[in-house]
C-alpha cells in the first residue's frame, strides 16, 4: 500500500481492482502454526537440539556503559547475550533458493540467533517476542567497527532473506562490520501476521463482493487470527527493537543501512534514540511529508516518468518494438493494455491480462538493467506471445529480493519492490501471501487514514490522470486499511532528530517508487544537517546498482565517517 510503505525493487498493485476477478491477486495462504509446531520450527531454524535449554532468549550479561541496569521492565532486555550459531535447515534452504551467485563459502559463514523483545514496551513484563536475526561476521582486513544493521524495506520483507540474498553485494563494508539483519515483528520468522488459511465467502448471497467489501473481509480475518499482535507491529516498535539489538551486539551506537521503507525505519529510530545514532545511510528515501494518498499519487507519477524514460530510450534503437516515434510508442503501450483487458492471452494455461502487463512494466522499471528484458518481452507481445510479459510479472509476486545486474555485470540482490504490493490473482477465497499481510498490518498501524468505498472513485480518477497505465492498479491499495481492526497512529511521520549526528541520504533522480524530492524533504524533517547524495540514473535505490561513485561515497562514510560535500552527485 502506498503512503511510503513498501521497497526497492519491494517495497512493494496487489489488489482486486475495479475489474473484479481480473485483478484478483495470486496468494499463498499463511496458516498459523500450532504452538508446538512453531517451537519446533524455531529449534530447526537455529539448529538447537530438541530438548536443549531455550537459548532463544538471551542470557543476562554485565551491564554495559550507558545501558539500563538489570531489573524489571525493559532494562532486562538490554542485558541479554545472543547465542549465535550456524543457521539451521530453514535458513540454509532459503539461502540455496537465492541462487548460486554468492562466492564460495558464503553460506557457511551465516550465523543465526534470536533476540528477545517485549511485545508491548509499555508493559514489558508481559508477553515477549523472539526476533529472528542473521549475521555475516566481519572478514577483515582492518579493525572491526562493530555491526552494520541492514533493512531492505517493504515493510513486510524478510531482512534475513535479504542478507542471505544480497550479503555478497556488501563485501567492502563486511570487511570491517558484522552485517546483521532481522525479520521485523509480524514478518517472516518473527511472529508472522496471519489472517487464516482462506478468505471467508461474502455474507448472504454474495451480492456485496465489491473491492471494498473484499478488503474488509480480509482485514476482519486478520483481526480474528492476529488481533493480539496487530497493535504492536508499527514502525515505532520495530525501532525500539533495533535499539535492543544495538545493545545485544554490544555497540554504543547503531550503524545502519536502510533501503526504501527502511529509510523511514532509520529516521524513526533517530527520532526516538538520537544519542544512539552512529553512521546511518538511508537509500531510496521515503518522504515523511506525504500521507498515504499523496504517496500513491507520487508513485503513479514516478512510474509514469520511468516509463517515459524507457520509451524515449527504446525508440532510439532500430529494433525497438514500439517503433521510432515516442508519441506513437506511448499510444502502443496503451493499446496493448486495452487489448489485454478485452482479450487476455494464455501462456501455458495461465492468463496474461492487463494487470499482468502493468506488473511486468513496473517490475522492469525498478532497474535500468531490466530494460533489455522488457524490450524483448514487448517484442514477443507484438507477435502475440505473452510469455516474456508473464516472466517479468512473476518476478514482482512478493517482497522477496530479486536478482539484478549491476554496472559491470556483477549480480546483486535488489531490495524488495517498494510502495506497491504485487497484484492479487487466483481464487476469490485466497488470501495475500504473508509478506503482503505484514505490509498491510505495519502500514495500517502507521497511519490513521482509513479510505473506504466512497473514496475509491475519486482515487481511481486522480491516479488514472497521473498515469493511465499505473494509476488504475495503484488506486485499490488505498483501501488496504478499510475497516482495519486496529487504530492507526500517525506519530511515526515525525522524524525530527536535531540532536542526532548527520546521516547520508542517497536519492536517485528517476526513482519511480520513492521519488527524488523525498530525500530533500526527509533531510529538512530530520533537521540534523544530513547530506543528500544524488545518483543521476534510473531505478529504486542506488547502492545496489553497483555504481562505483555511489558505493565509494557510502563505503567511505560507513568506514571512515566522512560525508560527501553537499551537492555531490554521481552517474
From TrEMBL:
Residue ranges of the region described as Disordered: 1-21, 181-206, 398-434
GO MF terms held by the record: hydrolase activity
Residue ranges constituting the Peptidase S33 tripeptidyl aminopeptidase-like C-terminal domain according to the UniProt record: 467-570
Report keywords, A-Z: Hydrolase, Signal
Write down the Gene3D superfamilies for this protein, in alphabetical order.
Answer: alpha/beta hydrolase (3.40.50.1820)
Q: Give the domain of life.
A: Bacteria
Query: Does the entry feature the keyword RNA-binding, yes or no?
Result: no
InterPro entries, alphabetized:
AB_hydrolase_fold, Pept_S33_TAP-like_C, Serine_prot/Carboxylest_S33
Homology family: Belongs to the peptidase S33 family.
Protein's recorded name: Alpha/beta fold hydrolase
